[in-house]
Amino acid sequence: MVGENVPNQGVVSIQEALKMAEEQGLDLVEISPNAEPPVCKIVDYNKFLYDQKKRQKEIKAKTTKVVVKEIRFGPNTDEHDYNFKLKHAEKFLIEGAKVKAYVFFKGRTILYKDKGEEMLVKFAQELEEVGKLEHAPKLEGKRMIIMLTPSKTKGK
Question: 72, 80, 88, 134: which has the fewest Cβ within 10 Å?
Fold first, then answer.
């Protein structure tokens, strides 16, 4: 038995605990059933549930939502287009979003896998100061993918 309005905290029989809760007009709530002996508390159950929901809501509000931005290249992407996409990726990383960059191989362009890998490695190296590479380029079907996460040094 634990609680603010319990005169003698300690081990009490269930009948006695229920009687104490009834006298105070409150409910007997089992806090940790796996403990030996189980821990119970005399509280207003509706208030207990309200506080619990409120705590969970606060925890949920504090969690950060991870945004993933995608940038697509072809194996023969021109230098200007590459630089344009590089600037966008840099902006996304500074804002705190993850960047998923991939080279999409259409039809017979799958023959240029090495070109695609070269481009992604170069892309990751140029963004080294604002983001770090999560994993090396890997081929998944017709796409070669890398993930970049914002580095802690630069940011918002």
Answer: 80
**Domain 14-61, what architecture?**
Roll (3.10)
Question: Are the beta carbons of 60 and 70 closer than 8 angstroms?
Answer: no
pLDDT digits (tens, 9 = 90+) for 95-111: 888 999 999 988 888 88
Which residues are CB-neighbours of 89 under 8 A, at least 6 positions away?
69, 71, 99, 101, 123, 127, 131, 148
Per residue in 115-151, pLDDT (tens digit) is 888 899 999 999 888 888 888 888 888 889 999 998 8
CATH number for region 68-150: 3.30.110.10
